[in-house]
Protein 1
Amino acid sequence: MNHPQDWYKTKEQAEGYQEFQKSYMGPSRFLCLQLAGRKIGTSPLRILDLGCGTGAAVPMLRELFPEAKITGVDIEPEMLDVAKRLYEDSNIEFLEGSSQKFPYEIGEFDFIFSFSSFRLWDNPVLCLKEIQKHLSANGLAYIADLRKDISSQIQSEALKKTSDFKSLVEEQIESAYTIDEVENLLDKADISDYLIYDQPFSVLFQNRAQQKRITEKLAEFTIDSDALNAKQNLHSMLYHLFIYPENHE
């Protein structure tokens, strides 16, 4: 198997990623940020999108937190080129860097978000330490990623409608961590103040008004009910890791 990061490296791949994220990752990213919005006590003023890719989270972050300054960091310059072209805003910046080598003097953030990239990090223990170090006193970090410890039935259902992306998704699942492995990495990073959810969104969102709004929003991503069902199965393949600042009360 190739390194799971290899498919992001060329200009053509970066452009193609836009369509992939819109079709398959967009709904999950939206749901993740809705979940984050419930966990954040006050509206963040500085947000870091770690592993931002082509900036797909920017419109969602802007809708949730309109006053925040957003910094996107990614290791792939081709992805950043697409992001800079799509989002020209004085309150948004994109910087080249990685989860284990933050750009120089990047500062602290009230909210650090990383979606579907944790499995790609070469040194996850160091990355986790860096994330906690760059949280403000009342900040929150949120990592959402694929989990490997899912049933074969859920995986099979989720892959039914991925068509041309099926082999890619299978490779990414193989590169992912189990929940136990994530907790082991947190222990090695000396991070004890965290919370992990491994339930599907149907469990995490119990409020009927929230469910109605989310269902309506998800419908914007597809008009194919079978594809929507497949994507909902894909949502069940995620875990949600929240990290609090050191000595958080």
Protein 2
Amino acid sequence: MQSDPGYVAVHERKKSSPQNARLLERIAADAASAVIAAVAVAPAICTIDKSIVENASGKRRLVESIKHSMTELVTKPQKFFLSKTFGLVAMVYAGTYLVANTTDTFLSYKKGNEDITKVTAGTAKFAGTSSTNILLTLVKDRTFARMFGTGASKPIPLPTYALFCARDCLTILFSFNVPPALSKVLPDNIAGFSSLSTAQILAPAGCQFLSTPMHLLGLDLYNRGEKLSVKDRIQAIRANYFKSSLARIARIVPAFGIAGVLNSKCRYYMMENIERRMKNDRVALG
């Protein structure tokens, strides 16, 4: 009877049922890790993003804007955490890390890989995370530009959208795909960090020296229109490049450095617990 194909098929489904049953738990762990990471770093990112936009528009100087946001965070925390700006930032990074996490989960599930804690760095993750991050960041940046820019609210020009897309693709590449490769050439246990954790901080931070001009040009096109000369654009970017680069490093380290490490650690421990229970289920089923 055991040679009957129908019996074998049913038996195989029963053997794989623990993994099927745990898939929703794994997705829940992916989501929980993403939200924890996003909410933990959103206050810093929200403050810096707002200051960069206000500084570029001339509404407030960079340091003045940061002080204003920090004062509100301390004196009116409920207003700060319930604000649209905080919600938009948390949405961007929770969504981005959720897609990154679930991509790893579904790739592992599809291959039947026993190591469900594995982190990938392939094309699928880049395509998913970059498209998600670009879409959500454009929503956030459009709202920030309208809230904290100069003059009346106006449509975002297409060149600004294109520059923001290029900026975000570069950031995603350096945040999710470069760190695994970079970690192979870095020493382990730097100041208590693993080589991967160190790479997750260094790669996106270094990327900002390349992406900041795209960001500043996009904001300048929005704030001053598209009819200015190339010389005027270069002068505007040069005037704000260094401090904006440092500000963007200060925001990207929490966004894809600290949040990346926190997301990875949370997901690893949650998945490790789920994997242990999956093994117990397999043993129970024989």
Protein 3
Amino acid sequence: MLKIGITGGMGTGKTVVSRVFALLGVPVYDSDARAKWVMRHDEELRQELISAFGTEAFTTEGELNRAYISSIVFNNPQRLEQLNGLVHPHVRKDFTKWAASHTDKPYVLKEAALMYESEAWKQMDQIITVFAPMETRLKRLLRRDTHRTEEAIRAIISKQLSEEERMSRAEHIIYNDDQQLIIPQVLKLHEQLKSSAIIKK
């Protein structure tokens, strides 16, 4: 079974592309959703987060206090690195367990915005990056995130890995630029990946 990573910057549409793969029967691991789950349910990680960020890291109901943690790490690279250093190893372990339950499939997908920053790429056999031009991304994000200004969105994007670097490091690129259709690209790549998995066996 191949482990395929799928990544892309904010607003490129990697989640939409992942959903197309899922419709083809490919298991998809959503790193963001699983990270939230792991932070709530992995007792070892919970204690590490409390040690690093204080008891306010969790609400009195035991839920992750995302607003509190975000306020600490957003403009503090050292604290963000500390948070990621705690969370990402637990997510990698969670992915390993999850992937082991899908060995009947030719390949699985791991969707992750921070594929390279978290070093998740080291677990992958191949990487797909989803590309969209900046102006297209901004239009999508302004429609989706109505609480954010264009300036705020650009500030977030500026802290992410550049599209050029993502594209140079990926084995496959899917263009979600409103010019090329996604489904034919996904279908073609799906067949390629199934063939690769057979060859690997």
